[in-house]
Amino acid sequence: LILLCVSGMRAETAQYSVPEEVERGSFVANIAKDLGLTGEELLVRQARLIPEGEKQYFQLNHHTGDLVVREQMDREELCGQSEPCLVRFEVLLENPLQSFRAEVRLTDINDHAPVFLNKEITLKISESTMPGTRFLLESAQDPDVGNNSLQHYSISSNEYFLVYTRQRSDGRRYAELVLDRALDREQQAEIAFSITAVDGGTPPRSGTALIRVLVLDINDNIPVFTQSLYKVSIMENSSQDTIVVVVSASDLDSGTNGEISYSIVQNSEENFETFKINAETGQIRLKKPLDYEETKTYEIDIQASDGGGLSAHCKVEVQVKDVNDNAPEVIITSLTSTLSEAAPPNTVVALFNVRDRDSGDNGRTTCELLGEQPFRITLLAADAYALVTSETLDREQVAEYNVTVRARDEGSPALSASKTLFLRLLDVNDNAPTFTQAIYTMMMSENEPAGRSLGRLSATDPDAGQNARVRYALVPPPTGTLAVASLVSVDAESGTVRSLRPLDYEKVRSFEVTVRAADGGSPPLSAQAVLRVVVRDENDNAPLLLHPAPDSSAAGELVPRWAPSGYLVAKVVAVDADAGQNAWLSYELAKATEPGLFRVGLHSGEVRTARAVTERDAPRQRLIVLVRDRGQPSRSATATLAVALVDDFSDAFHRLDQDPASGQQPKVAEEEIITTYLIASLGCISSLFLLSILVLTANTLCKARVRAELSPPSPSCYADGDFASDGVGGTGTLSPPYRYEMCLTSGSGRSEFQFLRPVLP
User: Fold this and answer.
1) Per-residue b or e along 525-564, where b marks 16 or more CB atoms closer than 10 Å to that residue's CB
2) What domains does the chain contain, in order, with CATH numbers?
């Protein structure tokens, strides 16, 4: 969370001064002392310098608070002839955010000597020129200002001329040559002397040029300008070759002495590069476009010369009018590129200044934001603004902002400039995960192996990063309910639901469990959904017979001989533990003694006569009814019915008792079956008789041998102490005189015994 708060911005401007071209590292001032801060506070509050221009000329020592020179500065290069020459910057402090304006004045040093653009100046003067006549000379150029600029002119010793130093309205000085004595061409046709321009520096610097005066023959009329001073104004956006003004002069002489040519006196290199004049017409035109922000006023010296060498001078004062040709500049001094979405309103995002080089209405600016965004601009001081939040932010709706600040001036037409600031919001865990469904229903087959995937849960979180990482878990059920944690599991990362063990549809048909999705925020947020697992039935249970009971022998049913067609004999009842189609049962007659006599209801299981019973029908009928479900594959069970056809119900039990125990149906005629039974019975009785004789004989022999061995008692019979180890002793409930003889068969000593007779003493 980054919160920037504006605690204040001082409107006062701190002023310092330093000579131009001082060495790097030179001390200017102690800013910490002026601001009332210590060096440690400057370091903690991350003080830094924000230059007004693109280049940084100073640097701040955070330990001492000293402002020192970072780059050498040439006053003439930075400001030209403008005075004072100021280098402005801002001191920006953080925690809390403060800004202080400061300016350093560059004081001029005498590092330039006056220079004449032409090292030789030629003047043509008529010999009839009267003493006291003044001649304007080319000015020397000295880029220094103040006392270091050009102060006066002097000429070398001669008999004819003096020099006077004059000052223009802008403070610059020029030289006027004054004729002190009448010329005589016949006596001296050419006069040469030097002129020296001296500045006021310490020590002073100077520059010289050679003046050659050519004495002309008599030309008694000089050109005369219509005006000694021409004042004109021109728009700064005027194109090249635009006519500035037309100067005009006349000469009363005739011939070549009356022909006038115009020229610009080389008093400034800037004038020479900016203006040109038609020597014949006197039209002054622009050589290059003007810039009001660089030069607002020009003074041009115009000379009109006739063919006889006489000349006159006038001044042209050109006022440049400002045009709204400079768009405002948006200068960012501080920017926060990331901001928490939980930042409150009025949180500072950026600090910036607006500058327009134009003047008047063209230089007055306003700021605005483009588009509907949760930000606004606050004015801190003149041309200083802060971009702050106007409402709460939500990263899930808008994660990034491109905030465009537009500055517009009040010129006509208005110019504007824009600066786009990129701001990215940092996520806060303010959104809980959301399931795509409130209830998830998943199917699993009965007896399905463990580990099978049943489906996938899905929850989304609009947050970002760790705050959006969703993990799934089962919510423990209340105590006493089905332990669903042993039935299914949920993958924490993917939300995949898997079975943990096979389920039996007949025991668990469905169950519900609560699933929680939690994000990775701090603290984590969560949501819940219901997972309902439905067990799909498989045909794993065969039909179960209720009647007749499956563990009994063939059920006996009685049918009278007079039973008509459709007579209800019995009803087979069965159930299936499965569900749905797997539990739909159908009944059919699988086998019968006489298939055409009985039929079974497909769905009811009722066994009825298919036709009327006749005397020819066998008295005992055996029916096998097949019960089948509709599962895939289907399962079945069979019920066996024994049906007795009787004339009346009095001999019903007699008929049923004679039913064979083996349960097999006769395969031959009734007479053959009775014969077979009689032979089998006779054989069995004979065998049993012989076996009884053998057993009785063996038993008699065994008893005789045992008596011989037991009188007196022998070691082959058990005494009292012989039963101690097997848990049988003489201390039971019977008195000692009663003893019993016990014989055990081989291999049955621990499983059975017989009491034969008492052994008396």
Assistant:
1) bbbebebebebebbbebbbebeebeeeeebbbbbbeeebe
2) 14-107 (2.60.40.60), 120-216 (2.60.40.60), 224-321 (2.60.40.60), 329-426 (2.60.40.60), 434-536 (2.60.40.60), 544-646 (2.60.40.60)
pLDDT at 403: 92
| Rg of the chain over all Cα atoms, to the nearest angstrom | 66
What are the tens digits of pLDDT across the range 249-265? 998 877 788 889 999 98
- Cβ atoms of 292 and 268 closer than 8 Å: no
DSSP E strands in 526-664: the ranges are 526-536, 544-547, 555-560, 568-571, 573-575, 585-592, 598-600, 606-609, 620-629, 636-646
pLDDT for 401 equals 92
Question: Which segments in the chain show pLDDT lower than 50?
Answer: 1-11, 656, 659-668, 713-757, 759-761
Measured CA to CA, the distance from residue 133 to residue 142 in angstroms comes to: 27
The answer to whether 409 and 416 are in contact (CB under 8 A) is yes
Predicted pLDDT of residue 741: 47
Asked whether the beta carbons of 197 and 107 are under 8 A apart, the reply is no
pLDDT on residue 715: 42
Q: Which of 433, 430, 428, 427 is nearest to 495 (CA)?
A: 433
Distance (Å, whole) CA 305 – CA 326:
42
Question: Nearest 5°: CA angle at 723, between 721 and 728?
Answer: 120
DSSP line for 455-510: EE--EE-SS-GGGG--EEEEPPPPTTS--GGGTEEE-TTT-EEEESS---TTT-SE
Which pLDDT belongs to residue 709? 62
Distances in Å between the Cα of 362 and the Cα atoms of 295, 357, 358, 383 are: 17, 9, 5, 14
pLDDT of 755 reads: 46
pLDDT given at position 457 = 93
Q: Decide: 89 and 49 in contact? Cβ < 8 Å.
A: yes
> What pLDDT does 245 receive?
94
CA gap 40, 551 in Å, rounded = 103
What tens digit of pLDDT does each residue of 715-737 get?
Answer: 444 344 443 333 333 433 334 44
H or E element: which one contains 678?
Answer: helix 670-710
SS3 category, 750: coil
**Would you call 643 exposed, middle or buried from its count of C-beta atoms within 10 A (0-12, 13-18, 19+)?**
buried
